[in-house]
Design brief:
By secondary structure, this protein is mainly α. The protein has five helices and two strands. The protein has a two-stranded antiparallel ribbon with strand order 1-2. The longest helix has 23 residues.
């Protein structure tokens, strides 16, 4: 359909696109932060304002990353899949549920629920 073509042209992102690499850079930094900071939680460092701010920024980033993931094309047997419905279906069937559960847990811990 013409709507699908419009979405492909304006919103679908190739995995190797520079904008996608820029988007994923903070994600890599946040993973490195978690690797260092999760063991440090036993020292109650997460009570400091700076760590609370970083944790909030991380939760916002990972929440936005879920939305971003619905627009990342993928390869299937060497063929680039850029159909929005196929991309969304593939994401929902693969990483969506783990991503969603982790992000929800982040927000619950952050908001103290």
């Amino acid at each position: 359909s013409s709507c699908s073509l419009c979405v492909r042209r304006w919103f679908m992102i190739k995995p190797e696109a520079f904008s996608n690499m820029l988007w994923q850079l903070p994600g890599g930094l946040l993973i490195a932060y978690d690797i260092v900071m999760i063991p440090m939680q036993s020292f109650n460092m997460d009570e400091l304002l700076v760590f609370q701010m970083v944790n909030f920024i991380a939760a916002v980033y990972w929440t936005m990353d879920i939305v971003h993931s619905f627009f990342i094309c993928y390869e299937d047997y060497g063929r680039l899949i850029d159909d929005p419905w196929q991309v969304a279906s593939n994401y929902v069937k693969s990483w969506f549920l783990p991503d969603l559960l982790i992000v929800l847990l982040d927000w619950l811990l952050l908001l103290g629920a």
